[in-house]
Amino acid sequence: MNELYKMLNELIGITEAEWLTFSAKLIRREVKAKTLLVSESQVAKNIYFIESGLLRTYHLQDDKEVNSYFACDNQFIATFSSFISQTPSFENLETIDDSIVYEISYIKLHELYDEHRKFEKLGRILAEKNYMCMLDRAYLMQTKTAKQKYMDFMENYNEKIIQRLPQYHLASFLGIAPESLSRVRKEILKS
Amino acid sequence: MNELYKMLNELIGITEAEWLTFSAKLIRREVKAKTLLVSESQVAKNIYFIESGLLRTYHLQDDKEVNSYFACDNQFIATFSSFISQTPSFENLETIDDSIVYEISYIKLHELYDEHRKFEKLGRILAEKNYMCMLDRAYLMQTKTAKQKYMDFMENYNEKIIQRLPQYHLASFLGIAPESLSRVRKEILKS
User: What is the ipTM of this complex?
Assistant: First the structure.
């Protein structure tokens, strides 16, 4: 949990007492690969901080899985729209590898918001970061070629995700066919 | 400003004293149609609450304007990513009609965040709403047909925007050619 403490301290500067209050609300879970933590049409009850592992969010479109987000060690993941609105999720959240996560529930997070203004600030910053991430992705998907999208992924994603992610998951994330991804990778290797 | 007070009261429940603190930070501006309030590559200094009028955000893609958002009476508008990150905007914010807006600056909003935890909560809620709006739009643009996108617009947008918005602005917002929009409208009128 040391990494989570460091991250919170960077984001909102917390005291030891505040950290104790926060960490008491967390539940540590060891989760096997390919476990669904949130299913489509369920309300997302938790947000997750990843100690180790690899997870994804995805939705079904014409019976195909479309990946929308990946996260690994020391990152947050959630089906965020369902979590903040407490309405049924249109996405699934699943572990790709065996993972260890700390979950915090909607109810407990809102207790923190009420108890300490600093955690309200944390909620604002997380929502703003999610907004920026969604905007970047929407812009990328609408305006860039397959090659540009792949280059952006290689530049901006965590090294572990780049190394561990199966190619078919990446192709679905980039909105391109697996064959197009292979072609793009070959082109880049040649150049 | 009565409508802004009502909205804030619904969102965060504010006292008269808190409203006085908040409203003292606002600047009222009367702005002619087709005035740029934020230009591409500028840092967005303000967020706007619209008393009356019609505004849009848009960016340039291959020298064409692509509309990303419209707002009218009693709604907020900003080039939100630039505002929250205080980095240069990739979008423009412009009045379509003559408008009256209340602007609040980044600096003053952050003073409010520091002074009253309720305003921190407001910041969180606004960021969450922006996230949901962006997500809905990204999902709509990626998965729906021209007809579905038009139907969604007619169902979910403010009546004034539907009435006042020039068709070429709407076509660019929906990511379809003006001729396709005309065809879709004719199809719906016939059915």
Answer: 0.86
